[in-house]
Amino acid sequence: MARKTKADALKTRQHLIETAIVQFAARGVSNTTLNDIADAASVTRGALYWHFENKTQLFNELWLQQPPLRDLIQDQLIGRWGDNPLQRLREKLVVGLQYIAQNPRQQALMQILYHKCEFHNDMISEQAIRDKIGLSHQSIRESLQRCVDENLIATSLDLDVIIIILHGSFSGIIKNWLMNPVSYDLYGQAPVLVDNVLKMLSPDGCVMQLMQSENQPG
């Protein structure tokens, strides 16, 4: 029997991680055993233990290697808005929702976070996962501050409060959609969902300009 190479071992390790994502999303983390993952991956339990000491280590590894959502969508941003920080923020939010809507792996990760996991002390923290998979508070705050500086949104806003509201709004949109994906078209409705959330930030007419610009050639 041919000896496995380091590349083979890394491929098996990644296969186990991908299988765990699917199993965790379908069964729930607490209800999924290492046997379930080994069987679904078509490997022996011994092979799984060679890579991961326990389920918590496997759970943590899948999140530690996961790129932030903002990095995953970067090459999909067309950047046609020039230096307009409100338009750029809108584009990131729309593209982020649409990426989730059409990427089964990202949906599975979101499903694990929002519906299929009970956290304990040995796990990577829920906050650390949310920082990767959701809105970047620092990036959003910088974008909002630039919008304030350019009078694109109301200058009286408390940005720290607005970030909490934005996070709650988009987390709720995603969480509810994952519970019943046929309830609305997340991909198709992403622009109008984002525009209606941004209405609370903008002076009269500003968001209407965003919606009108959507149909203009860039």
Automatic annotation (TrEMBL):
Entry-linked Pfam families: TetR_C_2, TetR_N
Keyword annotations: DNA-binding, Repressor, Transcription, Transcription regulation
Gene3D superfamilies linked: Tetracycline Repressor, domain 2
All copies of domain HTH tetR-type, residue ranges: 10-70
DNA bind region: 33-52
PROSITE patterns for this protein: HTH_TETR_1, HTH_TETR_2
GO biological process, one term: response to xenobiotic stimulus
InterPro entries: DNA-bd_HTH_TetR-type_CS (IPR023772), Homeodomain-like_sf (IPR009057), HTH-type_Tx_Regulator (IPR050624), HTH_TetR (IPR001647), Tet_transcr_reg_TetR-rel_C_sf (IPR036271), Tscrpt_reg_MAATS_C (IPR013572)
Record GO terms (molecular function): DNA binding; DNA-binding transcription factor activity
Protein name in UniProt: AcrEF/envCD operon transcriptional regulator
Organism: Citrobacter arsenatis
Gene field: envR
